[in-house]
Amino acid sequence: MGARAAVDRRENPPPAGERRTVWQTPGAGDIARLCLRTEPLATLPVTSVRVTVRAVGLNFADIFALTGLYSATPRGAFIPGLEFAGEVSAVGGEASGFSPGDRVMGVTRFGGYASVIDCEPDYLMPLPDDWDFAQGAAWPVQSLTAWYALTRLGALRSGERVLIHSAAGGVGLQAMQLTRALGGSPVGTVGSEDKAVRLRELGFDDVLVREKNFHRQLQRTGLSFDLVLDAIGGAVQKASFAALKPMGRLVVFGAAEFTPRGKRPDYLRAAWRYLRRPRYDVMDMISSNRSVLAFNLIWLWDRKDEMQSLLAELGDVPLPPPLVGRRFPFADAHAALDFLRSGRSVGKVVLEC
């Protein structure tokens, strides 16, 4: 790596008075409690890389964590955020693979809404030269989610038809791209005609604008599927399962129907939806030869080898840069979260530092 190899990597505390800016909540339960604050930079651990963050990717998991509806939500005060991109500013004495000045994108088990992040090298990836930082911050979580759903659980094979819900969102759009790259036939669903138009502009012709009675809509179209990717839940998920072919797979990785309308959860509404959630009888599933699988990507944090394997596989798939639909200043995290929660977003919502 030329002159960069000679960088002094001795562990030293940061200069006196050096600080970082973070969005932190004192505890889950109310998004309004998320506050912008500064704090002193800690000494860089010898095994970590320090990244000056330039962009942060937003995910629905952030909303669910802040409102306390996410099973992996930390107890007490925490900084939300699962993915970021930026520049390496320092490297611990026992860390390797990166040097100051490198452009990187990375993942973190919370802590992403920060201007500086200390991260182990295993959770960082080089940022492609022709991508900007916002595109880098938009890539890791949605790509890993879509790839794991399609390949590890969905076992997608060339020629299979895949129904992808929320196809204009970050994960959905990446799943549409990956399905096509793997030889499958993606059929996307969206909640508005505007989003359908945008998908068609991106080259996806098979798009359904979901009607209130989605089961009846699928019956009318006569469509059936080998694989369904769902992060909505409720009646949409139930109708999707009914449209599976024999040997079809329903892969669930979220439940957008539980998204709070406001800053705090509506527990009565959530309880009602929970009681009415789809239920599956394994004996019926055996008879119809259809499967339901579900996952939470956060578990990858503790399985570095598996995550590296998934990233290596993704690296072999030719894909365009991710679509960043809206960019907000880092100081406008509340506006960005409101926009993401509104359901109006196309592509990824990103904070820029």
Provide a descriptive summary of the structure in words.
With 353 residues, the protein is α/β, with parallel strands linked by helices. It has two domains: 2-139 and 321-352, Alpha-Beta Complex (Quinone Oxidoreductase, Chain A, domain 1), CATH 3.90.180; 142-299, Rossmann fold, CATH 3.40.50.720. Strand 9, helix 5 and strand 10 form a beta-alpha-beta unit. Helices cover 29% and strands 24% of the residues. Helix 6 packs parallel to helix 7 (234-242). It has eleven helices and 15 strands. Strands 3, 4, 5, 6, 7, 14 and 15 form a seven-stranded mixed beta sheet that branches. The chain has a six-stranded parallel beta sheet with strand order 10-9-8-11-12-13, sandwiched between helices. The model is unreliable at 1-10 (pLDDT under 50). Pfam families: ADH_N (PF08240), ADH_zinc_N (PF00107). This is Zinc-binding dehydrogenase. InterPro entries: ADH-like_C, ADH-like_N, ER, GroES-like_sf, NAD(P)-bd_dom_sf, Quin_OxRdtase/zeta-crystal_CS, Zn-ADH-like_protein. It comes from Microbulbifer thermotolerans.
Keywords:
353 residues, alpha/beta, Quinone Oxidoreductase, Chain A, domain 1, Rossmann fold, 7-stranded mixed beta sheet, 11 helices, 15 strands, disordered N terminus
CATH topology of the largest domain: Quinone Oxidoreductase, Chain A, domain 1
Topology pattern, helix = H, strand = E: EEEHEEEEHHEHEHEHEHEHHEHEHE
Give the end-to-end Cα distance, rounded to a whole number of Å: 27 Å
Report the count of strand segments. Answer: 15
Number of helical segments?
Answer: 11
> What CATH architecture of the largest domain do you see?
Alpha-Beta Complex
For the sheet with most strands, the description reads: 7 strands, mixed
Poorly predicted runs are: 1-10
Name of the level-1 CATH class of the largest domain: Alpha Beta
Question: Please, how many domains?
Answer: 2
What is the global morphology?
A: globular
> Percentage of helical residues?
25-40%
Task: Write the CATH homologous superfamily of the largest domain.
Answer: Medium-chain alcohol dehydrogenases, catalytic domain
Beta content: 15-25%
Q: Mean of the pLDDT scores?
A: 93
C-alpha Rg (nearest Å): 21 Å
Alpha-beta content class: alpha/beta
